[in-house]
Amino acid sequence: MYLTAISAGQEAYDSALLDPALAIASHLQVDDDIIRIVLPEVALDALRVDSVDRMYFQVVGPYGERIAGNARIPLPPSSLAADASSQGYYETVIQGQRVRVAALSVPHRRGRILVQVAETFIKRERLVRELMLSTLLPELTVMLVAIALFWYGIRRSLKPLERLRNEIASRSPADLRPVAEQDKPLEIRPLVSALNELLARLNGAIDSQKRFIANAAHQLRTPLTSLKTHAELARRDPDPVEMRALLDMITSETESTSRLVNQLLTLARAEPGLEPVSGRQPVNLHDAASRAAQSWVPKALAKNIDLGFELEDAWTLGDPLLLRELLANLLDNAIAYTDAGGAVTVRTRVADGEACLEVEDNGIGIPDSERTRVFERFYRVASAGGAGSGLGLAIVSEIAEAHHAKVEILTPPDGRGICVRVAFRPLAQTAATA
Question: What is the pTM of this model?
Answer without folding.
Answer: 0.49
